[in-house]
């Protein structure tokens, strides 16, 4: 993606450090962070300076590389996996990336672990980019099928599942960018996504950087727009998808899915196969849901007219808050899951098909990246 015209990833290696965009400063400032230790990387994930399921996975991969520079012993590796593994519970990509590093590093001598871990981290990042391009292509076909309703196609998205939530390209926004680049007249309704406003701050910013027409709406406006025929499809990302197709994503996704179902609006979920968790049979009650500090709800951050950062409280001082960060949308409300293996039904068969397809592609060395993941 381009930031002010310059091609930029959300995370990359910079010598012995890992560089990434501080997403807590967007949309008002593009600030970079250079992390030199696994502890700094873990803090960035907890504080959501990097966030979004695939990017959390990539950041964890890079975090292990930093740790192996610090202490490549078995104890150092286990400590790194522990500290990174404890950062955020819902996005399964985190555990997936750590497992991949652990499997690869287990048989490697300590003196070669840092270089190997950097290589694995780079593979995870590069594969993410290729995966998202494939998701974009498959999603574009679904968008094209909406054209008879057109000429303008109105999509609605929740949270940020764009390039900022990945290494590059995005998941839910990959088909949007593909459609825009293909010359389709596309417009995106952007849910603000309280409490942290990933839609208003991040999705709106990156769509603007790419020149995609969009409009920010209050979280509760989606149902109203759907009733009026002003939404042709909903497209969101996912943090974890259970074996039966239940989808965990940013809090509020479930309500959008209910409204979409009630109004016969297609509800698409775009996610890489690394977000599918075949070890969990059903999502509701089984996928761990992160509870975040209620102050995220009670306070809002932004800039004032002079551009100065401000944090203001929006609730009575004494009112407690409750801040679950994700919810689970049952598979029956999901029209399609768009993976790099194609768009599959949100069902046991569909999920199994995507996982098997990916495994076969990896076996045949024909994964989307063209290189066999370690
Ligand atoms: O809490 P966040 O900002 O990490 O939550 C992000 C989301 O819910 C995204 O929709 C999801 O991770 C998919 S990102 C491609």
Properties at a glance:
binds 5-S-methyl-1-O-phosphono-5-thio-D-ribulose; 11 helices; 7-stranded mixed β-sheet; alpha/beta; 2 domains; 4-stranded mixed β-sheet; globular; disordered C terminus; Four Helix Bundle (Hemerythrin (Met), subunit A); 374 residues; Rossmann fold; 39% helix
Question: Can you characterise this structure?
Answer:
This protein is an alpha/beta fold. The protein folds into two domains: 2-128, translation initiation factor eif-2b, domain 1 (Four Helix Bundle (Hemerythrin (Met), subunit A), Up-down Bundle), CATH 1.20.120; 135-363, Translation initiation factor eif-2b, domain 2 (Rossmann fold, 3-Layer(aba) Sandwich), CATH 3.40.50.10470. 39% of the residues lie in helices and 19% in strands. It is built from eleven helices and 18 strands. A hairpin with a 5-residue loop joins strand 14 (299-303) and strand 15 (309-313). Helix 2 runs antiparallel to helix 5 (110-144). The chain starts with a strand and ends in an 11-residue tail after the last helix. Mean pLDDT is 96; it is low at 369-374. The structure holds 5-S-methyl-1-O-phosphono-5-thio-D-ribulose.
